[in-house]
Amino acid sequence: MDGKANIYDIARLTGTTIAAVSRAFDPKGKIEQSKREAILKAAEKYGYRPNRAAGRLSGKAIKIGCLLIANIPEYYEELVAGIKNSCAKLSDFKVECDIRLVPPDENGDRVVAAAFEEYLRGGADGVITNIKYTAEAVRYISLLADAGIPCATVTSDAPESRRLFSVQNDFVTAGRMAAQLLSLAGATGSVLLFTGERDSYVQRHIISGFSEEAADDGLSVIGTYDTSDDPDLAAEYAERAFSEHPDCAGIYISTANSLPVIGYMKKHGLAGKVKIIASDVFPGLSEYIKDGTVTATVYQNPYGQAKTAFEKLYDHITFKKPEKQIFTVVPQVVMKSNLHLYERNSQ
Fold first, then answer.
1. Distance in angstroms (rounded) separating the CA atoms of residues 329 and 334
2. What are phi and psi of 296, to 5 degrees?
3. Of 40, 35, 47, 36, nearest to 1 (Cα)?
4. CA-CA distances (angstroms) from residue 134 to 125, 131, 140, 141, 243?
5. pLDDT class for 133, splitting at 50, 70, 90?
6. Is the terminal CB of the chain with fewer CB neighbours within 10 Å at N or C?
């Protein structure tokens, strides 16, 4: 282990919780003696000393506001679960989360502005965002920084803002992996790409990686369809894509908004004939992986990203720990053979 351990390290090393670690250092804390001894032994070995976190037990509650765009349930529900899991583990330290779902329509900007205004009035000690980073949203993040309220982005980013840090997937690598997977699966010649918001920070990097690797592997990207994370638009574009390019050999869907596209292919007998690489893992997609319709998916772990963002932001608020600007999650390949390892990953 590099450097001194923190409370999370000791909890992990001893198979306990951070609340148990805190109680182990309190002579009056209720904890099994064997666990107390194991925690104290690990703390001595790795140089851990309790700090101001213990003060949270009697101090003012920390509130972390979470603004998440509610466009694809299969995706944002994983973010919510990750945040709630971390918040529950920190509940002994009086940590609260205020999760607000932003509608992906014309009301979204109004909801975002109202939430930021509330945060600026003292409604949050820190903020986690997964939204469309419009000029106005970027401005609000800077205002939060001026007010001493740290903001973290998760699964996407607004590097031009004054956010404290970002937890994100290695987007370029994810795109490159998808292209190589299509090639290894036997796709040759022409392939199609279905994206989310094509001009977003995430999709720009994914498209870049995919296009570069596709060219290296001799694949020609003959069509890119921006579904804007809208299921109806995805279904419409699936019909258009296979009408315009009936001979395509494979597709990559770089967003969790994949079920309408895959469903269209299944309905029209294209499953198995056209190689499909998807994104992430969720119940509806799992069935398509199991029956062979989808060759593989590139897992970005939104649940884990949300957990990390919440815990790192809490660390900063409580300990004023210096942070890296970007925490990167390594994308992973999930296929039928290892799917079972990921289906319950968020539990």
1. 15
2. -165, 165
3. 47
4. 23, 9, 10, 11, 34
5. very high
6. C
Asked if 218 and 206 touch (Cβ cutoff 8 Å), the reply is no
Contact predicate 276/265, CB 8 Å: yes
How many Cβ atoms sit within 10 Å of the Cβ of residue 262? 25
DSSP string, 33-98: HHHHHHHHHHHHHHT----GGGGGGTSPPEEEEEEEE-S-HHHHHHHHHHHHHHHHHTGGGTEEEE
The pLDDT score that the predictor gives to residue 108 is 92
Give the rounded percent of residues in the chain with a pLDDT score beyond 70: 94
346 has pLDDT over 50: no
Q: C-alpha distances in angstroms, 47 versus 9, 314, 324?
A: 11, 21, 22
Does residue 18 contact residue 90 with C-beta atoms inside 8 Å?
yes
Cβ contact 124:98 at 8 Å: yes
DSSP-derived pairing of the beta strands 95-102 and 326-329: unpaired
How many Cα atoms sit within 13 Å of 140 on the Cβ side? Answer: 25
| Residue 232: both structure tokens together | 């109806």
The tens digit of pLDDT for each residue in 253-270 reads 999 999 999 999 999 999
Of residues 19 and 63, more confidence is placed in: 63
pLDDT per position as a tens digit, 267-303: 999 988 999 999 999 999 999 999 999 999 999 999 9
Q: Say how far residue 294 (Cα) sits from the centre of its chain.
A: 22
Mean pLDDT, all residues of the chain: 91
The model's pTM is: 0.82
The DSSP annotation for 240-278 comes to HHHHH-TT--EEEE-SSTTHHHHHHHHHTT-BTTBEEEE
Positive or negative, the CA dihedral 194, 196, 197, 198 is negative
Q: Which residue has the higher pLDDT, 153 or 346?
A: 153
| Contact of 265 with 292, CB cutoff 8 Å | no
One DSSP character per residue, 174-188 reads HHHHHHHHHHHTT--
Residue of 205, 119, 189 lying closest to 155 (CA atoms) = 205
